[in-house]
Design goal:
Elements (H helix, E strand, L loop, with lengths): L19 E10 L2 E11 L4 E5 L6 H8 L7 E6 L5 E4 L13 H6 L10 H14 L15 H13 L5 E5 L7 H14 L4 E5 L4 H6 L2 E6 L1 E5 L12
């Protein structure tokens, strides 16, 4: 046996860099503590389901991650150049603004460069069909039901096939028929995108997610099958 032969070097897999990092994030507003010492990382491919009580800071946390709201203190880092799709809560949208479903969906491509007019039209058409609003494509959003408007906003969030998808209460106002369609859409998107999803209705979504967070001014990561309250976490 030749003792001079060296064993092959061990190959060590490098952990992926986090897509989102929050460190000691705190937000106070009018002397009221909204978020306190929030620390977590989100990695590429994560599907993070977020729940918690009303007023616990769930939407505020998403807005801080998106850069729409500065924290009082702490560090927020989102990987540069990552494409983001965002579905806000419907009550944050002015439904009287004179814009059609088609224009809402197309606005999701404003930050996407190098798309021809024909390709853009095709992407808008396919997305409107995907959210089942083809018959309402040219209808002003002020004439839509709450569920139809929610679907138009979803179309805007997903049309560019973003690498980071942030969904704030996507089930709000949806009828049960489209709710099941939404689960299929989200499952398909999760194959290519990192997802942060806030919802009160977690039964189905919890089974799709690989991580579960509870936000009640502080953040708690949960490993229990159900995570409606902190005491159900392990």
């Amino acid at each position: 046996m030749n003792s001079s032969v060296k064993p092959a070097p061990e190959i060590v897999a490098m952990a992926p860099a986090p897509l989102i990092t929050l460190k000691d994030v705190t937000l106070k507003r009018d002397h009221r503590l909204i978020l306190e010492d929030v620390n977590f990382k989100v990695y590429p491919g994560d599907f993070v389901a977020i729940t918690g009580p009303n007023g616990g800071g769930k939407t505020t946390l998403l807005r801080i991650i998106l850069g729409l709201l500065p924290p009082t203190s702490g560090i927020v880092n989102v990987s540069k150049g990552v494409s983001i799709g965002y579905l806000p809560q419907k009550n944050m949208i002015d439904s009287h603004f004179p814009i059609s479903v088609r224009e809402v969906v197309e606005s999701g491509l404003l930050a996407t460069k190098g798309i021809s007019r024909d390709d853009k039209a095709s992407m808008v058409r396919d997305t409107i069909e995907r959210i089942q609003l083809t018959e309402h494509a040219d209808r002003p959003i002020g004439q839509l039901s709450g569920g139809q408007l929610q679907r138009a906003l979803l179309g805007r969030a997903i049309i560019s096939k973003p690498k980071l998808l942030v969904l704030d209460e996507p089930l709000s106002y949806l009828d049960k028929r489209f709710e099941h369609r939404l689960y299929d859409i989200i499952a398909d998107l999760a194959k290519e995108a990192t997802i942060l999803l806030v919802s009160h209705e977690m039964t189905t979504i919890a089974g799709m997610a690989n991580r579960h967070l509870i936000i009640d001014h502080r953040l708690h990561e949960c490993s229990a099958a159900h995570h409606y309250v902190r005491t159900e976490c392990e």
